Amino acid sequence: MNDRPVLLCAATTGYQVRAFGDVARRLGVPLAFATDRCDQLEDPWWDQAVPIRFHAPDESADAVVSAMGGRLPRGVLAVGDPPVGIAARVADRLGLPWHPPAAADASRIKLAFREALAAAGLPHPWFTALAAGADLRAQARTLRYPCVVKPLSRSGSQGVMRVDSAEAFESAVARIRRLLALPDVRRPHDERGDVLLAEAFIPGREYAIEGLMTAGTLEVLAIFDKPDPLDGPFFEETIYVTPCEMEEDVQARLGEAVAAAARALGLRHGAIHAECRVSGGVPYVIEVAARPIGGLCARALRFGDGRPLEELLLRHALGEDVSTWTREAAASGVMMIPIPRRGVLKGVAGVEAARAVPYVRDVAITAGIDQVLVPLPEGRSYLGFIFARAAAAPAVVEALRAAHARLSFLIDREVPVVSHAS
Ligand code: ADP
């Protein structure tokens, strides 16, 4: 038996990590784990976890390789955006197929991605970097509106804002900079942390593409339609449903656009997750991440007779041919339950009623009671997730909306902390 593990690099210890753990146990494949959360691990499964620091990818990769000793990994997986640079470096040092380090790094920096698309002659919005300390008023006059302003390397639409006028531009930039300066958001090691990106707002319907690259070739695993309009000013994800009801030739063009964008970045091997818009018939790739769809949303994808995405990815990391795997026949969707307003979560009602809606498979409330809820653009989490499966996508969307309508959230105003001078 081959006891060499597969290395899982992760920024969380949540659902997706457990899902990989379950699949690995079932397949009898040892997993090695590298994370920045070693102090938070409870599961004895992860006793051997190697601590990594995302702002020090080279040192972290060296630490992982030396911690593995003679049991070098057979393959590499990454969960979440922050670890992709480390996963890529470990793979590179060990000669394992994965996304190259430069491509994995570039996938996390929105300006680098735009530059890669432009250099490759692929469709992209106009874009410009906004350096800290530049004259905002002068900059505002040179831009066209509507545009989108965003931080260079955040995820989950955090800090992403649509701006419709020069006046609104200045306050949006100030708001994003305030967000990036918050103690729990600031990244002291990020030299370009205060550079922002402004780019054209691309109107049109949005899709998410889940893909798997093997030696440079992209296989599209699923195209998710996002039926709720995403027109801003903030870009809150809600419903993802697959299959999408787009004509076959547009689907094919979307897949080709993502493959071309991934190539332009230099991505080669492993999971990718892309966000795209189709505008005037042209597919624009907004982002390609060098990792699978995040967290609980992965549960919306099952293959063959119901195998999870994590099994497909683990087998791929082991070098198995998974090119014949296809998504299950049913339509499937997930709703990320948005945070309606800032406050403290005090209660959730209607969960059983929501679960009872036909085609709904599960309702998972992930926000905790007494948790401070922060909506976009400052926040980046959800109240929870609703899952549905049905014969066709419209029934899935209807079920998700009906279930959401049955939920109610009691959110109290935050009580400001008052300090008393003695
Ligand atoms: P993140 O990595 O934080 O998710 P993205 O750059 O992918 O940031 O943007 C998040 C969302 O904001 C996108 O899914 C899209 O809905 C919207 N968005 C971002 N850039 C644009 C753009 N140029 N035009 C239209 N919508 C955009």
Unreliable stretches covering 5 or more consecutive residues = none
**Rounded Rg:** 21 Å
Task: Give the strand tally.
Answer: 21
Indicate the percent of residues in helices: 25-40%
Quote the distance from N terminus to C terminus: 69 Å
What is the strand arrangement across the widest sheet? 3-2-1-4
Structural class based on helices, strands and sheet pairing:
alpha+beta
Determine the mean pLDDT: 93
Total DSSP helices: 11
Largest sheet: 4 strands, parallel
The share of residues in extended strands comes to 25-35%
From the coordinates shown, what is the CATH architecture of the domain at 6-106?
Answer: 3-Layer(aba) Sandwich
CATH-defined fold name of the domain at 6-106: Rossmann fold
- Distinct bound molecules: adenosine-5'-diphosphate
Q: Tell the overall outline.
A: globular
Q: What's the CATH C level of the domain at 6-106?
A: Alpha Beta
Structure description:
This protein has 422 residues and is α+β, with helices and mostly antiparallel strands. Among the domains are: 6-106, 3-Layer(aba) Sandwich (Rossmann fold); 126-200, ATP-grasp fold, A domain (Dna Ligase, domain 1), CATH 3.30.1490; 335-422, no CATH class. The protein is 29% helix and 27% strand. The chain contains eleven helices and 21 strands. It has helices at residues 15-27, 57-68, 84-94, 101-107, 110-119, 136-142, 166-181, 248-265, 309-317, 351-355, 393-406; strands spanning 6-10, 31-35, 50-51, 75-79, 127-130, 147-151, 161-163, 196-200, 205-214, 217-226, 239-242, 270-279, 282-289, 302-303, 307-308, 331-337, 343-349, 360-365, 372-373, 384-390, 408-412. The strands form six sheets. A four-stranded parallel sheet has the order 3-2-1-4, sandwiched between helices. It has a four-stranded antiparallel sheet with strand order 5-8-6-7, with helices on both faces. Strands 10-9-12-13 form a four-stranded antiparallel sheet. Strand 12 (270-279) and strand 13 (282-289) form a beta hairpin. Helix 2 (57-68) crosses helix 3, helix 3 runs antiparallel to helix 4 (101-107) and helix 6 crosses helix 7 (166-181). The longest helix has 18 residues, at 248-265. The mean pLDDT is 93. Adenosine-5'-diphosphate (ADP) is lined by residues 110, 125, 148, 150, 154-158, 160, 199-202, 206, 230, 235, 275, 286-287.
